[in-house]
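Module 6 notes. Inverse folding takes a fixed backbone as the condition and produces residue identities as the prediction. Think of it as a translation problem where the source language is geometry and the target language is the twenty amino acids. Below is one complete input and output pair. Work through it position by position during the lab.
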């Protein structure tokens, strides 16, 4: 091979490996394909197959790797990668055979890699891809076994990370936390989140779930839809990061409610998480309602269907509802006028019947909802009133300070002073119009006097 070709291969190799690290799969495929035209080498085929596999092109990945397998390549990486590709192609028995071959080859070469012409550090790094392949097949116990056999070979923290994931997936969260704690300070600081969530799982506050064997890459897309968020959180590592942030003291209230609602909408696990919050005495009541909204979002709970929540230490039945809200329409003004007159006369039952009847035929405005909440309070129906409070608080979470103001006012009428103060402190007084500022001062004076 001439000098120019050697230099070109070296340059392309460095470029391709950089592209793999950055997740630039298309570019990496082009680079390693160009290298393969200059030299047919197992390492080049490994990298090309890795790029194809990472981009979801399974058949192309297999085609790149197969010539090396046919020649019986003495490389654990090739066989571990072949195991993952075969598994994804539906060839489970072959995938198991390839994994076993990767393990056998590694242990054979691991006795003395230099004698076989291999760099020991490079050889021992194969522990990572082999255990990743075992995890791909869902064989968590095998990973724990390999960890005990191979721990002395580890050259990076990833080996400990994988062992912790296996223990977590086998429902040993505290043992997983203990393993992760050995490497959390070695440029793997995100493992502190894994440790914290493992303890929450052990306490029963968070239901167990399956972790992948790759580190999380939490990148929330801009202008993301609810489907985008659900897809993001379906990755167990991303879910860990969100859960850890959620249970960190001082996490913003608005963000907490959004996170809980998204988490509670994640299928069966989301339902289990929501019900765990319902029965917990450690989380705020608003978290429970946010979890309920998440169940409504995924259809696991129907509007008006009762759920049992622990509220102020007492189990209570709560019915979650979703109301459509519209601006005050001209056709509704007469209905609101009648409702106001009835309310002032103390006819709360008639107010409720009037407004609920109106809501069946058209969307109820914010003003109508506010009057309906007051009627519920007058009738002692605090559960229904608080459902409307949550709606106004949700508007506050979206940046409408008037929503927090109304929520504070209604909570004050319900006798929930602490909650009313909480909503009031979220209001930006300077952004309110003069009439709303007057309402703000009235609520503040009332709460201070109580």
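Target side of the pair, the amino acids:
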């Amino acid at each position: 091979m001439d000098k120019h070709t050697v230099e070109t291969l070296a340059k392309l190799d460095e470029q391709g490996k950089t592209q793999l690290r950055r997740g630039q799969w298309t570019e990496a495929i082009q680079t390693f394909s160009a290298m393969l035209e200059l030299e047919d080498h197992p390492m080049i085929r490994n990298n090309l197959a890795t790029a194809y596999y990472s981009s979801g092109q399974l058949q192309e990945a297999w085609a790149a790797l197969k010539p090396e397998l046919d020649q019986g390549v003495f490389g654990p990486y090739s066989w571990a990668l072949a195991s993952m590709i075969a598994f994804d192609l539906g060839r489970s028995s072959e995938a198991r055979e390839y994994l076993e071959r990767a393990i056998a080859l590694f242990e054979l070469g691991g006795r003395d890699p230099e004698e076989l012409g291999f760099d020991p550090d490079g050889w021992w790094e194969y522990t990572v891809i082999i255990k990743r392949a075992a995890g791909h097949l869902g064989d968590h116990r095998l990973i724990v076994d390999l960890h005990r056999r191979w721990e002395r070979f580890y050259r990076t923290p990833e080996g400990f990370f994988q062992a912790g994931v296996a223990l977590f997936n086998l429902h040993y969260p505290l043992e997983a936390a203990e393993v992760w704690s050995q490497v959390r300070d070695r440029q793997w600081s995100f493992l502190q989140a894994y440790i914290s969530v493992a303890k929450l799982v052990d306490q029963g506050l968070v239901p167990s779930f399956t972790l992948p064997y790759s580190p999380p890459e939490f990148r929330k897309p801009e202008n993301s839809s609810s489907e985008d968020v659900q897809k993001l959180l379906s990755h167990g590592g991303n879910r860990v990061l969100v859960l850890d942030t959620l249970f960190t003291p001082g996490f913003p209230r608005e963000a907490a409610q959004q996170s809980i609602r998204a988490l509670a909408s994640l299928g069966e696990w989301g339902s289990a998480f929501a019900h765990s919050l319902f029965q917990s005495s450690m989380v705020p009541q608003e978290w429970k309602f946010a979890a309920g909204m998440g169940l409504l979002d995924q259809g696991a709970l129907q509007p008006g269907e009762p759920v049992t929540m622990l509220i102020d230490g007492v189990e209570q039945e709560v019915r979650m509802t979703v109301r459509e809200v519209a601006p005050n329409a001209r056709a509704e003004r007469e209905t609101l006028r009648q409702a106001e007159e009835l309310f002032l006369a103390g006819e709360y039952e008639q107010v409720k019947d009037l407004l609920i009847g109106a809501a069946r035929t058209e969307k109820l405005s914010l003003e109508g909802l506010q009057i309906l909440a007051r009627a519920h309070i007058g009738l002692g129906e605090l559960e229904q009133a608080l459902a409307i409070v949550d709606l106004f608080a949700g508007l506050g979470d979206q940046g409408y300070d008037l929503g927090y103001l109304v929520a504070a006012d209604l909570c004050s009428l319900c006798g929930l002073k602490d909650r009313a103060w909480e909503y009031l402190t979220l209001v930006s007084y300077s952004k309110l119009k003069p009439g709303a500022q007057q309402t703000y001062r009235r609520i503040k004076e009332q709460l201070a006097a109580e």
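Reference fact for the lab report: The radius of gyration is 30 Å.
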